[in-house]
Design a protein that fits this description.
Elements (H helix, E strand, L loop, with lengths): L1 E5 L6 H7 L7 E6 H7 L4 H4 L1 E5 L4 H13 L4 E6 L1 H14 L3 E5 L11 E6 L2 E6 L5 E5 H5 L3 H28 L5 H17 L9 H21 L8 H13 L6 H15 L3 H14 L5 H4 L3 H10 L9 H4 L4 H11 L3
Parallel strand pairs: 1-8, 2-3, 2-4, 4-5, 5-8
Antiparallel strand pairs: 6-7
Helix pairs in contact: 4-5, 7-8, 7-9, 7-11, 8-9, 10-11, 10-14, 11-12, 14-16
Length: 338
């Protein structure tokens, strides 16, 4: 995989592609309505054929598949947020046409992961897809993205600290096979950001954006090596999936949900130092640390905690601790995150 992170990447898109020995003659740029406006000044939309994605449905994907085949496109350039890139990765798997990921947001690890979230029969489902052959991140484009998406990306990356603990726990408690290389590939960038957050002046800091981009890219690669989302998804993601089931998918950005849940899971895991540092990091950057900041009632979050251990077959700290309504309420009051 080719990885390029820096300022001015989109200004020199073809140069970047060629110096990495990628060559194509007839690429198709897929983008969204808003992301299309973001990239229109960089020539991608003007120089190549493009398609504006309206939704991540199978009908939309079918139209794109026909277009790719009929017009003999030899590359997919997915420019946008997670939805656009997820559609691009799925199409790459279906057509065997290589995809280049060009995120305009850094809200989650979809920019490089082998997993796509698609809307199938009005339900959002996770499906295995093809990883991009390249990920190109223009720091200046990311700087101009809304703050909420950078915070979501931060929450997604930091949640790897919780996921890493859970994988070790599952290995020790039930003998689950563990791949320590892929685990550390996802874990170390998260710890790097946590250990160095005092050196970032804000989420718009170029160094922070670079570290975040590399961390999310490596999370995706780690999942591909492990053939599982295990390196970057544990108890915190179970809580998020439970919330999706209760309040609906996409009501709150995924990275915000898993990042918030990590406050609770690192506490339950006994990662005291990491838990305290995460709270300091969140407070510095304005990441939500209370339920009222998320717009979620305590009763709803308690229901999610009770449901989370049963949401999928993945052993985590939530399976080791007996969670009932009284316990959940007590923990939330102890953490003062209500």
């Amino acid at each position: 995989m080719i990885i390029e992170v820096g300022s001015g990447i989109l200004d020199e898109f073809e140069k970047v592609i060629h110096r990495n020995n990628l060559h194509f003659e007839n690429p198709l740029v897929i983008t969204g309505k808003i992301s299309g406006e973001v990239i229109k000044d960089y020539g991608l939309v003007n120089e190549y054929n493009y398609y504006i994605i309206k939704d991540s449905t199978l009908d939309e994907i079918s139209n794109l598949r026909k277009m790719l085949i009929e017009y003999h496109h030899d590359a997919i350039i997915a420019c946008g947020g997670g939805r656009v890139i997820d559609v691009g990765k799925y199409l790459a798997r279906e057509t065997l046409i290589p995809i280049i990921s060009v995120p305009t947001l850094l809200s989650n690890d979809a920019i490089s992961s082998p997993i796509s979230i698609l809307r199938i029969n009005n339900e959002y489902k996770s499906v295995g897809t093809t990883m991009p052959v390249g990920v190109l991140v223009d720091v200046e484009v990311i700087k101009d993205s809304p703050e909420i998406y950078l915070l979501a990306g931060l929450g997604e990356l930091i949640s790897n600290i919780s996921a890493s603990y859970d994988w070790i726990l599952a290995h020790n408690e039930i003998g689950e096979k563990i791949d320590n290389f892929s685990r550390m590939l996802a874990y170390m960038p998260a710890i790097n950001v946590l250990n160095n957050f005092e050196n970032y002046y804000s989420t718009k800091d170029s160094k922070f954006i670079e570290d975040l981009a590399y961390g999310l890219i490596l999370s995706g690669i780690a999942m591909n090596i492990a053939h599982s989302s295990r390196p970057a998804s544990g108890s915190e993601h179970n809580i998020s999936h439970a919330l999706d089931k209760i309040i609906g998918f996409g009501k709150i950005p995924h990275g915000i949900q898993v990042g918030f849940a990590t406050i609770l899971t690192t506490y339950l895991q006994g990662q005291t130092k990491e838990h305290e540092w995460i709270l300091e990091l969140y407070k510095k950057f304005g990441f939500p640390t209370r339920l009222k900041e998320l717009g979620i009632r305590k009763s709803v979050f308690v229901e999610a905690l009770i449901l989370a251990p049963k949401i999928r077959d993945r052993f985590t700290i939530l399976n080791k601790i007996s969670i009932d309504r009284k316990f959940a309420d007590s923990v939330l009051r102890t953490l003062t995150i209500i």
